Amino acid sequence: MGAGEDAGNATITLDGQGPLYKQIERAVRMEILSGRWPAGYRLPSEHSLMESLSTTRATVSKALSKLTEAGLLERRRKQGTRVARTTETHAVIGFLDVRQDIEGKGRTYSYKVLRKRELVAGKATAFWPAVNAGTPVLALTAAHCGFDTPEVLEERYINLAAAPDAAEADFEAEMPNTWLLARLPCTRLRHTIRAEAAGAAEAERLGVPVGSPLLVSLRQTWADELPVTSVRLVYPADCNEFVGEFNPLEP
């Protein structure tokens, strides 16, 4: 379906997990992120969704309102609900697609989990004040590889109060970003980029000298008021750069 087309008899599939409005929210979000519902695409009416999902209009409206607040949808009286035209740009600026970058250089990509453990939020997660001390957290250390050689290191913390199934997930089969976005909407994102010097462990894994410059992407996301994940991506600075472009006037 192209931009500007209407949904017609399009349907969505719910995952059966949690409150119904959350299931609708996740299902619509995945249609948008997958590209099946592009910018400008008009969603089925609330009444149509209500009937096809056997629920109330209030439940459907709550789900769509959450996605509108997140900037994914535009709702206008008598004109229906459409996918916001800024969706793709926000996704590019907010989320770094490491796999696409590596494959774009002609290298075979793989994601390797180096360490996975459960811990309790406290001193180890002091950098993530949004998560209350005592909250169960999954700590994940991984490497984004090209031809099996680590090119980007990842340190990720997942709030298990938000995504309890993450403790058993196979993140080498389905990467954490994809897994989380399929279950929880990202309604708020904080992204910081800074320079650091390589420590001994990072230098060894990336094959660079100790003390060499690194580019570090720090990202924290929320679903409504619930903190979901904190991610630190580490790149060798001599062969990487971050570029973002936002053009609200582009058709």
UniProtKB/TrEMBL annotation:
The record ties this protein, via InterPro entries, to: Bact_HTH_transcr_reg, Chorismate_lyase_/UTRA_dom_sf, Tscrpt_reg_HTH_GntR, UTRA, WH-like_DNA-bd_sf, WH_DNA-bd_sf
Which terms are listed as keywords in the entry? Answer: DNA-binding, Transcription, Transcription regulation
Q: Which CDD domains match?
A: WHTH_GntR (cd07377)
Give the domain of life: Bacteria
Task: Using the record's annotation, list all stretches that form the HTH gntR-type domain.
Answer: 18-86
Q: Which GO terms describe its molecular function?
A: DNA binding; DNA-binding transcription factor activity
Residues annotated as signal peptide? none
**Official protein name in the record:** GntR family transcriptional regulator, histidine utilization repressor
What the entry lists under Pfam families is as follows:
GntR, UTRA
Q: Which SMART domains match?
A: HTH_GNTR, UTRA
